[in-house]
Design goal:
The complex is a heterodimer of chains A (about 110) and B (about 160).
Chain A (H helix, E strand, L loop, with lengths): L2 H4 L7 H10 L6 H12 L5 H13 L3 E3 L9 E3 L1 H28 L2
Antiparallel strand pairs in A: 1-2
Helix pairs in contact in A: 2-3
Chain B lengths: L2 H14 L4 H20 L4 H17 L9 H22 L1 H9 L43 H6 L9
The chains are: A mainly alpha (about 110), B mainly alpha (about 160).
């Protein structure tokens, strides 16, 4: 299997990747996720987008919902989720490195 | 709960009702609480409700295994939800707008919407059920007409 085929996150959208990055350091509920993503990426996740992405990641088995604390459900990244995130970040790094190198060579 | 808070909550609840029941069972309570927190942070309730509305449309239109609804039926449901949501938005300023839209005797009237027997006992024969665009400066959506107000029932019956 190629590295590109291993990267299951390449089709799930930016919001899903940002959520996985946010969950990489521990479980969070919806409000904490929105605040964290705003802080590290400068992206304002709408609540509708957030729940859409959470459902998608859950269906893919990349995150799981933990028992509710009051009305809030914390979410946790799963082992396949961590592996998928790692593969996606590796892929981004390769693209980033190639882009920077070509910019340098091209003198742009 | 203050009037603006109650209004914001109604708006968000209207948007959340547009989601499929399966989604609501799982997320509705949490989503309502999240909306309350975001509104408390200073986010406009309308933008939160809009985000939920778009999420609901996506939820209906996303193919699921075992879902028998066709894409057309799902799109119709989403459109119906949009209509209900628009009506809820209009309800916020309903009384003020109703007062501003009931008296609009001036201006041309399309022949297509003229009643067959004008002047039958009414001082404004052409105000019977025509779309009345909101006046400038009222902050109303230009797409909003009298029809949506009529959906909300008797409270806005003066308009149509």
């Amino acid at each position: 299997m190629t590295a590109r085929e291993q990267d299951v996150l390449r089709r799930v959208g930016e919001a899903s990747v940002l959520i996985l990055v946010s969950l990489a350091d521990g479980p969070k509920h919806g409000y904490a996720l929105i605040q964290d993503v705003r802080q590290f990426a400068g992206v304002e996740l709408g609540p509708g987008t957030l729940y859409g992405a959470l459902d998608r990641l859950d269906r893919l088995g990349l995150i799981e919902s933990l028992p509710a604390e009051e009305r809030r459900h914390p979410y946790r990244i799963t082992a396949p989720g961590a592996a998928a995130l790692r593969a996606h970040l590796d892929s981004l790094e390769r693209v980033s490195a190639a882009g920077r190198l070509r910019l340098q060579l091209g003198g742009a | 709960m203050s009037a603006p808070e109650a209004r914001d909550r109604r708006l968000v609840d209207a948007a959340l009702r547009c989601y499929p029941a399966r989604w609501r069972r799982r997320h509705a309570d949490e989503a309502a609480e999240l909306a309350a927190l975001l509104i408390a942070d200073g986010n406009p309730a309308a933008s939160i409700a809009w985000s939920y509305l778009l999420g609901a449309a996506r939820e209906w239109l996303t193919p699921r295994p075992g879902r028998s609804l066709s894409a057309v039926a799902a799109a119709l449901l989403a459109a119906a939800c949009l209509l209900v949501f628009s009506a809820a938005l209009l309800a916020e300023t309903g009384p003020a707008r109703a007062a501003g839209t009931t008296q609009s005797p001036s201006g041309p009237v399309s022949p297509a919407i003229k009643p067959a027997a004008p002047g039958a006992g009414s001082p404004h024969p052409f105000t019977s059920c025509r779309p009345v665009l909101p006046r400038q400066g009222t902050g109303a959506s230009p797409a909003a007409g009298c029809w949506l107000l009529s959906i909300q029932g008797a409270a806005h019956a003066r308009c149509c």
